[in-house]
Design goal:
The protein has 396 residues and is of the alpha/beta class. It has 14 helices and twelve strands.
Length: 396
């Protein structure tokens, strides 16, 4: 009798445990009937916080808007964000907490190339949790496609190709690329020359390497003036690009300047002041200030409501776009939203139009949603769009 009673109690306990596990979601792949739990890591402190803080504000504003409207097919979004302070090792620990403790089904709208890459062995390979709409990255992430990794940010290499083509078409014959010294910046800077030469073989392209986090650009401007370029391309952090532009203004250097997407930020305008006037750049999203598209108007309205202290600029729009693309794709899932169902949904996602950036299309072998960028220029202290999105020249 005692053995039968013990077996009965074990059976009841096992059944209760199974029910409890089911109710809790059963781990990162199981999903939830009422909540979709996703996570992200962003640089919210340190030098890179100028990107992480506004990106978080933009994505949060969209997720709050969606939740206020009832969520994704009736499921509310729980977006758990943690600060990695631009530290790859710290990001790995964050990834373990998000997956093992918080039970997220995906990483959405994270930021950081080296930081995110450090998590791939655990998140993508071991845990099979997808990383979606991540900001940052390089060609090796998507060529070939990596299982569970999907991006919507045009690669820096392609942005550089667009800039090389642009300066050549503008008639520059002597181009100087001013770039920071870390390998990631060097790699981007090296893409300028091939694109310029493909457009005009007579263009001469030289590089000027600057130590990362340089604050005194007076000697840099002196070197630029000595080389007498027709155009300067800035592959720098936004704050350093602003220092370059401000010093160029002080020293009377009037050489046209071009920058890649990280340069096209509100912080560049704030720090450089009048020195930023005329600066040309490529961007990943529409101009949040001068575009009258209904999707941009919705963005500005939501930012005023949900993040009134954060300027509605390009960087907040990056976060908004990443969040909106995730929601649009997740809405196509019929049934539980899990790591597996999200991966399948992205593989099938075609012509996803967020209204604020290029139309995105993914596939089983295509995990980067777009290569397109848009030209922008600073006029009267504001960024303005120059035409529509376009596809940069194919890189060599």
């Amino acid at each position: 009798m005692r053995r039968r009673r013990t077996r009965s109690l074990i059976a009841v306990f096992a059944a209760l445990l199974a029910v409890t596990a089911s109710a809790c979601g059963g781990g990162p792949s199981a999903g939830d009937d009422k909540v979709i739990k996703i996570g992200a890591w962003l640089p919210l402190t340190g030098a890179q916080a100028t990107f992480g803080v506004p990106e978080r504000a933009g994505a949060e504003a969209y997720f709050k808007l969606v939740n206020a409207r009832g969520g994704i097919n009736g499921r509310k979004i729980d977006w758990i964000v943690k600060d990695h302070a631009a530290d790859p090792q710290q990001t790995v620990q964050i990834a373990r907490r998000l997956v093992d403790q918080d039970g997220v089904v995906a990483i959405v709208a994270a930021n950081g190339t080296s930081q995110s890459q450090a998590t791939f062995p655990f998140v993508l390979e071991q845990s099979k949790v997808p990383i979606l709409n991540t900001l940052g990255g390089d060609a090796s992430w998507y060529e070939p496609a990596r299982e569970g990794l999907f991006g919507l940010q045009t690669l820096y290499e392609d942005q550089a190709a667009a800039l090389g083509d642009w300066v050549a078409r503008d008639g520059a014959k002597k181009v100087l690329v001013v770039h920071s010294d870390p390998a990631a910046f060097v790699n981007v800077a090296e893409q300028i020359a091939p694109a310029a030469h493909n457009t005009d073989a007579s263009v001469q392209v030289k590089q000027l390497k600057v130590k990362l986090a340089t604050t005194d650009y007076s000697p840099v401007i002196s070197k630029v003036k000595g080389q007498k370029p027709d155009a300067v391309v800035l592959i720098l952090q936004a704050s350093e690009a602003a220092s370059y532009l401000k010093e160029a203004k002080l020293q009377g250097l009037k050489t046209p300047s071009y920058g890649y997407a990280p340069v096209a930020a509100q912080s560049t305008l704030t720090l450089a002041g009048k020195g930023a006037e005329g600066l040309k750049s490529v961007q990943l999203v529409k101009s949040p200030n001068d575009d009258d598209d209904p999707a941009i108007k919705e963005f500005r309205t939501a930012m005023a409501k949900y993040a009134p202290k954060q300027p509605a600029d390009f960087i907040t729009l990056w976060g908004w776009e990443a969040a909106k693309a995730f929601v649009e794709i997740a809405k196509t899932i019929d049934g539980p939203v899990t790591s597996e169902s999200l991966t399948r949904a992205y593989q099938k996602a075609r012509d996803v139009d967020t209204g604020v950036g290029p139309v995105l299309s993914f596939g089983a072998g295509r995990h980067l949603g777009t290569r397109d960028v848009q030209k922008v220029v600073v006029r009267n202290g504001q960024w303005e769009s120059l035409g529509d999105f376009f596809t940069p020249p194919v890189r060599d």
